[in-house]
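User: tokens in, sequence out, please.
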């Protein structure tokens, strides 16, 4: 069975973006970026992969799920991850101008995807979608940045059940960023 991983950058106070959905305050330079590029090249948008000469097969993920605001982030790119199967959860969009499929029932779709063969499923954002999918999230991979935003889009937004996770690994980088992985704890 495939796993659903919420692989996301977050501030120390638990925000994945500023109130307008921007993420420019996160660190894009430093040794954590080398690890990200080497270990998770699948999570890089196509334009960045092309500019960096990355043309390797996917290592971790072959599918991405994102909320509408993540997909339509200001200055966003059409078909940002053509090397992955792309889904955007939305009740406002009915189609996209690219190869991103719109889904209205993300929980059912994730359960279907988990039954297929393949690599992992990447939950890219946002907070409301993460709260909806929390029962199906198998792993949290948090890239914790040494910033406090004070407000913005939370890691999880909305009503959701208390869910326990167990720490699996933590890596600390000189940049101050931590990569911390949690796996769903047994009830």
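Assistant: Sequence out:
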């Amino acid at each position: 069975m495939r796993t659903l991983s919420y692989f996301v950058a977050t501030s120390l106070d638990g925000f994945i973006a500023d109130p307008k959905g921007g993420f420019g305050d996160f660190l894009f330079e430093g040794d954590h970026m080398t690890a990200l590029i080497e270990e998770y090249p699948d999570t890089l948008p196509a334009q960045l992969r092309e500019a960096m000469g990355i043309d390797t097969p996917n290592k971790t993920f072959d599918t991405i799920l994102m909320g509408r605001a993540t997909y339509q982030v200001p200055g966003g790119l059409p078909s940002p991850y053509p090397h992955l199967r792309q889904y955007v959860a939305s009740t406002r969009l009915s189609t996209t101008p690219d190869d991103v499929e719109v889904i209205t029932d993300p929980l059912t779709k994730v359960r279907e995807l988990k039954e297929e063969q393949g690599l992992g499923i990447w939950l890219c954002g946002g907070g409301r979608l993460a709260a909806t999918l929390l029962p199906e999230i198998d792993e949290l991979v948090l890239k914790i940045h040494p910033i406090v935003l004070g407000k913005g889009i939370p890691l999880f937004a909305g009503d959701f059940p208390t869910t326990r996770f167990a720490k699996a690994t933590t890596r600390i980088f000189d940049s101050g960023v931590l990569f911390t992985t949690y796996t769903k704890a047994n009830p």
